[in-house]
Amino acid sequence: MGRTDFPRTILEFQARFVDEQACLDYLFACRWPEGFVCPRCHRQKAWPVSARGTWECSGCHRQTSLTAGTVLHKTHTPLQLWFWAAYLMTTGTPGISAVQLQRQLGLTRYQTAWTMLHKLRRAMKDPTRKMLSGEVEVDECEVGGRATGRRGGRSLTARAAEVIVAVEVRGQGSGRVRMQVIHDATSQTLCGFVVENVAPGSIVHTDGWMGYVPLAKKGYEHRPRSQRAARKADDPDPVMPRVHRAISNFKSWLRGTHRSVSNEHLQVYLDEFVFRYNRRGTPMAAFRTILGLESEQTPATYQQITAEGPHAKRQT
Ligand SMILES: [Zn+2]
Q: Which pTM does this prediction carry?
């Protein structure tokens, strides 16, 4: 068993990441699986210069932090708690809420748990991911918009958000999924989403909305099918069943694990759902990805997270 192998059970996990040093050893093994190599002069000799995982090259004296470029950089929270948070988030099928994480890790502040989860979520959107391909269903739907009260006999509803969804057709089942909040249903927005997420040459199924018409000119085999026409013709085949299944799974996940989410944060939860869905078979890769151990992207800061939704105002 290699050093970066992922523990299979909760007991193995506990034994493996027993203290801060064990977590640092894991980070070391992820960064330098063949042993230390200086990123500047490629020398292979170094010594540790801090308790938090900074190594200094014996040749050029460049210092390299094991946490640089990961979500763990400059955090005051122990690495062990981060590892547990990532473990609970990636191995539990429905994920974990901030309240549950706070309780399980014994954190004094809800704020800390909330920030940790949001930082981990940020790494769930992989900018280098491959486009969907083959045959793809695309449709929009509304999410949220719950009744918030009644006034003068009329129920007041929070505005629902519009979401566009693409799902790969894999036989009777579904392949990978993409979901994105949209602010209008113009052809620019709808076709823009398809162009960004679906490989040219793919077959794209949509409803009969004219916003999708330009797809045929953008290198796709567009197969529109209107819901109304299908109903009229008594067509027994459901229209885009995979998209509708994905969206209903998303809604019940959101309700079950997170109760309700404000519209400003919806995209982050869509990203988490998509990430879980697309990696349902590889929890170890998911664990490493959300800790930022195998990507070049810079993790989000607390300010970036809260700037987009003032859910929490205090600094941790
Ligand atoms: Zn060096």
A: 0.75
